[in-house]
Amino acid sequence: MDTLSRRKFLQLSGAAAVGAAAPLLTMEDIAHAAQTRPLPIGTPILIIVTLYGGNDGLNTVVPYTDPIYFSSRPDISYAADKVLKLDDQLGLNPAMTGIKSLWDQKRVAIVRGVGYPKPDHSHFTSMAIWQSGAPVSRLNSGWLGRWVESQVEDPMLAISLGSVLPPLLAGEKRSGSSLPLGGLVIPTGNLAKDCQMLAKATSTDNKLMATAATSMRTLFSVSSTVTPILKMPAPVADELPTANGGNAGGDSNLAQQLDVVAKLIAAGSPTRVWSVSLGGFDTHANEANAQAELLGTVSAALSRFASQMKNTTRGKDIVTMVYSEFGRRVKGNASQGTDHGTAGPVFLIGDRVKGGFYGDQPSLSKLVDGDLAVTSDFRDIYAAVLEDVLQTPGEKILTGWKTKGQYF
Amino acid sequence: MDTERLEIARLYHRFGFGPRLGEFKAALAKGLSATKSDLLTPPSVDLGAAVVAEPNITNLGPRPAQKTKELIEFNIALRQQVRDLPIWWLDRMALSDHALTERMTWFWHGHWATAIGKINFAYPMYIQNQTLRKYALGNFGEMTSAMLNDGALQFWLDGGDNTVKAPNENLARELMELFLLGVNRYTESDVRELARALTGYQVERSSGKVTFNAKRYDSNPKTILGLSKNFDGPSAAAHLVSQRDNAKFISERIWFRFISSQSALPVNNYFEAAFSSREINEILLAATDSEVLGKPEYSIVKAPVEWFVGVVRFLNLTPSALKTPAQLLGYLDKMAQVPFDPPNVGGWPTDESWLSSASAQYRIQFAAWLIKQADLSALSNVAPNKRIAWLQDELGIFAFSNRTRLALESARSTPAQLLQLAICSPEYVVSA
């Protein structure tokens, strides 16, 4: 597989499996909410960054002193003098200079060897497990969708960028919302009047026809008077050059997604959870350049975002979590790439984070079936995020999971 | 409820691309069984498809070196071929007299989903398309063997990099998960063993020519799904296709794309038995049986290409003659579905994914663009008070709701707008 983006993954997994239909927000909704009931200053905000395709953890946080690392993947390893050293054993991928500087400011926690019991090597299954947050009971809802359902109903609470909702934000009865990136162009005049008639609900519609009618209806709830928020300049990032780093070949618009998030957070949107994503991490072949470019994009976009937010009253409130559905096989393949693996690192970034390493680095000499052993369960991270960022008890949402990490 | 009308409408919209002018009424007059038998019997010569000239898509050879004059020419030719290829196929879909063949080719393209972005040559994609069409209604085992030797598929899933020294399991995994068996019907060990069986293939990228290099082949025994032997590509593929799970999986995929993506294939179904000899036309007989086609609950959303081809067949438009083909590809791209460019190896999504506000907006614009280029005299010649009933029969719609009738009433004196609303109505966008 070449590229695997969030949108594409959703299309494939047919997000239809999930329970509740997702409200599609308009800029008007968000702008109105931001003006009338802005999120109180000091309320923590969570940004979830999903890397689709299976990011190679060993070339993200590189064990640059381990001889097994070099002998396992001679074609695609990073030499000690290339990596951005984090301590005397581990270093970041050379493309991740932005995140390195946040690390130096003690604003980055790296949880090592993260996964779940009985790792699955299918993109689609593994991502479903991560997003459901329920590796054992395999729920159809997403962990943050269940969080949405635990809160007072509010379509602004959790928003995903793009026109399709990731399963992560899907609840059984209520879900997070999704916000298309570009503005919508609305028909006018007679056509508008007739389209609105066509968009009315009717009892004879089956479920899909009703959805088709709704999609047209939502189109009309956008008002041209309020799109200004999107047209507003994004908060200024004064520490960095404006050009952002790598670009994953036209398919990546992570920086653009984060730009919209930055504007909406700065405007006061009463949103606690934002979901953004980047695809293309399925590096079976010619990994080195492709992954470096992608990690460069992530790193540059996140450090730019951090810098933008620093200039607002919300800077201290934001916690960003970066994860992927699995890491990759330790041993490189013949195509200068790697096949699907298991455990990988998770990044937590923000002023509220206690910077440093958490969890054990998986041993390269004690592989399980050629794969890294999982040393941290992702539910420890979810529990901490739920309790320390979203201020909600995690046990019920995580189907009885009782432990949590101390990252905040 | 008029289930005969429902079934005929579904035959047209799901197993074809929607009726041309006059076809639906004629089918209603002819009756269900005659309509079904016409649909399932390919004509000896497809005169409609024969009108479409084969595209000028050739093996361009390896990419010339940087900063040469040859590279510029190469790039121009490649760009032209990459643009011509989808337009050529859309023409076939629009003009073919036997829509089922193109419809099934389209289904198999989504099944063996290969995207031109990574292949970066039109020629191997063109060859793959011919292979898919050749076996579209044929034997699935033969199709699988042919696909194993398909350069585009091999390159797409790094098959040429899979060697005895270092297996690359991309192709092996997707063969099991997405093409032949379905997820959770094999173990991780099966994937690794299959990858070893599939070693030795080499692909020439520009021509898509696949060769076998014994030096790169792992000749040691492998154990796949409980059977140990000295598998190679063809024998391993045949072993997978012979599994009961293969019949189950293909049945599920046909069900998912043609009957319902919302409800699962029932445990008691005719599909698997019909597919016992892996004949695709046999499973289509099961899929078009009244047992499933007559059940009102199984509605499905038309994917953008299906919607588009339905509209141009009805309007008697030829995709390559639209002004301009590049704009056509632009619209399809906004709707997120361009032939030869599936989003990933799992193919395109279904149902709700095509029903966002964004796609509603693009569909309205796209419809206006198409209608502007069409001859609407057939509709204009109908008395305004009969136009809605006429559209319902000509578009092959099971029934407009009162809601939609009201909206159409309001536009009935302006044919262009009336038609725009009709083809953007929930009743046309969804195959009821």
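Strands of chain B lie at 201-204, 209-212, 222-224, 227-229, 300-301, 430-431.
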